Records
---
Amino acid sequence: MSLAPDPIVIQEVALCDGLQIEPAWVPTEEKVRLADALSGFGFSRIELSSFVSPLAVPALRDAEEVFARVRRASGCIYVALVPNLRGAQRALAAGADELNLVMSSSDTHNRANMGMDAGTSFRAFAEIVPRALDSGVGLNGTVSTAFGCPFEGPQDEDRVLALVERYRALGVRGVTLADTTGMANPRQVEALVERVLSLVPAEDLTLHFHNTRGMGLANLLAAYEAGARRFDAALGGLGGCPFAPGASGNICTEDVVNMCHDMGLTTGLDLPGLIGLSRILPALLGHDTPGQVAKAGRACDLHPSPGTQALRRQRKA
Ligand code: COA
Ligand code: ZN
């Protein structure tokens, strides 16, 4: 008898990574409506917003209000992205369940994105950790550009591992490796994930892929084969870092869930619900979204046969 494969945990990031790059303002009530709908689909983790400078990311300037108004589903952890102490104080006051601290392996990207170097980021994190632990709030640390930087190019694996260890030494339990601008390939992912899993248990490691160069799902599968079980994904494949040239969407939640379910991997998520919600995004945002399954439907959603005569008529027309 073969054992059932481990379930895959997907953290939904459309409201944060997804909306942060949108040029059109999404009203707070629409964000709350999206979040409440997502909460009903079985997520155990939703990244709800970020507490960054409203000048840097105006699209998420309503983070406090979003946290205050969302109807929280029991069993779901509502995560806040945090760049510095000020952001952590705001996120704690807003009642975030977990702080996702973010810095980049590339100093050039960290300066472009956060206006500081790695040392400055970690000095802030050292002040944040005791405050979060005192409040019983979870901690995750993201290493952005872990698979490549649009300014510096390839990133040294040893440096990425050292940053992972630095987070863990501070008392940050969860770690995310982020492919901020979709520069990773599956072989590279397999190698780095294997090394990081020697430092961090699979339940604490998240992989964050962007589909910038069409390798997002291949990278997810490579990470899964190497032992990773937690992934970020965004409804509709929205997303991107506003401070990285050529950034484009996260791997698409409903495409990931569809692939997993077709492969017999469980996610605990409501795929028809996700597809239905994704289909409202183009009207909300004013543009098409990159996800595939919301357009094509699932492979099991069969079409009525047009019949031979109808096919002939179509060919003639
Ligand atoms: N939330 C709100 N305001 C903040 C803030 C935060 N987390 N951190 C700093 N500020 C305010 C300061 O109070 C200050 O305001 P003032 O001019 O009215 O006094 C102003 O922003 C500048 O502060 P400073 O500490 O000099 O920050 P900075 O201008 O160097 O910016 C960050 C640093 C980290 C706040 C900014 O680069 C940022 O928000 N980056 C996030 C980018 C992002 O979200 N990328 C995508 C996700 S990874
Ligand atoms: Zn991202």
---
Amino acid sequence: MKKGKLVVYTGYSGVGKGTIMKELLKRGDIRLSVSCTTRAPREGEIDGVNYYFVSKEKFEQMIAEDSFLEYAQYCDNYYGTPEEPINRMLDQGYNVFLEIEVQGGMQVMKKRPDCLSIFIIPPSFEELERRLRGRNTEDEETIQKRLCAVEEEKKYIDKYAHTVLNDDVSRAVEEIVSILEDNNE
Ligand code: 5GP
């Protein structure tokens, strides 16, 4: 069976990556990697579905055991991609999306140079701040940290092979689907 594509999928906090991803998952040939994190679950998030929510000790043990394809610290928490499930899904022919921030993205591009990389950008930064505040899931301190992270993440956009503007969810989904098709050699 033909192996699937590994896709580094990055975008600023609040840009709408999750909404686009939900639509992409309806296609059937795409799987989303479930990351481990030390951050607390948000309202409605389910362990094993949105993330594996683990303690700092457990996360550090997994680092020591070399369980991660990549991991990074973002706004005071660890986030990482367990490697084994990724390889299994790719072997089964699925296109596997890693919804990760830039530090992790850089690690994956280095380790798996054949991966695809997509960065989702907002129509404007005012719009981004409005969306981040509008979802009401973070306190002011966390929002400020996430807005600072945006400044840092901007520096990495040109390392990504594709940037997709999220001006309209279905349009962005179509663009990502055509990127996948173009790279389906
Ligand atoms: P959130 O706390 O909003 O769920 O995620 C914060 C940031 O961490 C987002 O940019 C998200 O894409 C990123 N992230 C989620 N999982 C991982 C992961 O496994 N590795 C890395 N490097 N970043 C991740």
